[in-house]
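[09:14] KT: can someone run the structure on this one? pasting the chain below
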Amino acid sequence: MADGRGAVLALPHLGNWDFAGAWLAQQQGYTVTVVAEPVEPPELFDWFVETRARLGMRVIPLGPSAGTEVLKAVRANEVVCLLADRDLTGDGIAVEFFGECTTLPGGPALVALRGGAPLLAAGCYFRGHGRHETHILPPVPAARSGRLRDDLARVTQDLAHRFEDLIRAAPTHWHLLQPNWPSDRGSDPAAARSGVG
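[09:31] RB: done, structure tokens below
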């Protein structure tokens, strides 16, 4: 943050990430921006946005302009938090994740590669008695070294391995409740992305 490049915290659905974002905003004074998946009904999404705003976070809805808004945020030296263990759009980057091929969103890697912000994998954990703990790992190497698509694949795979380490530390804290691998819906990856099968 002192370099003025912002930061990208990429997280799996592990523990209470909203608590960690609130701590960064309210206790540490950082400007925190998050991307959220619009959900139905719209009133529920509005409630998520309002709740996170009360916790000190600005919400960007996942959609066509989200990437541009996230790049603006890191260039404004903000902390951008991205849940990135689930490919919501079906056009993610192919990775090996816990021994099986799947796709993960390329957004965190793209922001780091294009925006120059450090990319840090982070995991949040429940510690009992109302306590929480967050681990932020050292930056993922995200310097350009070739074609953008190749760099995206390399950085996203590295991020997937770091997610594995964070999840292995407390697998019962991981609450990814949707299908995430092609084998979750059968053997046809196209069907898995489309929800058919």
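[09:33] KT: thanks! Confidence is low (pLDDT under 50) at residues 191-197.
[09:34] RB: yep, looked fine to me
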